[in-house]
Design goal:
Mean pLDDT: 79
Structural class: mainly beta
CATH architecture of one domain: Beta Barrel
Helix content: under 10%
Low-confidence stretches: 1-29, 55-61
CATH class of one domain: Mainly Beta
Number of strands: 10
Largest sheet: 8 strands, antiparallel, barrel
């Protein structure tokens, strides 16, 4: 968005004063010429520089409660923030929008360090309604969560509507130090919380995820 600024120039009008006088025959003295009025100085316009934009930091997440364990099955909770970028957009005769080749990036903080870290993945969706303010989406992709202890590879899917926000789930399989474990994560991203921390709930358990 641009803004057009119009400068105004002050024009000073010059008034000429005519002095009328007579000359005495006896005096014969020439009248002095009028002293010219000096021009009025127009002050230079002051330009105020635009303020430098500052980045608004993400809020600090709420402190987490302790995890609950039943043997190797551990219930965790935490917070997460994600940024999804759409790839190639197409539409079909049914007015469905298809997005393919997108990307996903998340930062996760959980009360179990095994499932905290940085995640990246793919992002595809089908959408209806034309906008996030009045529409619905079904999205899915692959995702990899990495931290100092190892990594988790998974797949996710979920929905978005302008009535619910994002609701999605991820099934991970552990690798490295987490081999032999799986991790299920449920995520609710309420409306109006884009780019902020939102709550997650998950379960670490031995074995592999169930067959869809």
């Amino acid at each position: 968005m641009g803004r057009c600024v119009q400068a105004r120039q002050l024009v000073a009008s010059l008034t000429v004063v005519v002095m009328l006088g007579g000359c005495s025959e006896s005096a014969g003295v020439a009248q002095p010429s009028a002293t010219p009025t000096p021009p009025i100085a127009t002050p230079a316009a002051t330009i105020t520089p635009a303020p430098t934009p500052t980045e608004t930091p993400w809020p600090t997440p709420t402190p987490l409660s302790s995890p609950t364990a039943w043997g190797q099955a551990v219930l965790v909770n935490g917070t997460e923030r994600c940024n999804a970028t759409a790839g190639t957009l197409t539409s079909d005769a049914s007015s469905t929008t298809h997005a393919t080749g997108g990307s996903l990036e998340c930062t996760e903080q959980a009360n179990d360090p095994r499932v905290s870290g940085h995640a990246t993945g793919t992002f595809d969706f089908d959408g209806w309604g034309g906008s996030v303010n009045n529409g619905a989406e079904v999205f899915s992709g692959t995702i990899r969560l990495v931290n100092d202890g190892g990594a988790w590879d998974g797949r996710y899917s979920g929905i978005y509507t302008n009535k619910t926000g994002d609701l999605w789930s991820i099934w991970y399989i552990g690798t490295g130090a987490y081999a032999g474990l799986s991790y299920y994560e449920w995520i609710e991203e309420p409306l109006g919380t884009f780019f902020t921390f939102y709550p997650i709930t998950g379960l670490i358990f031995p074995g592999t995820p169930p067959t869809p």
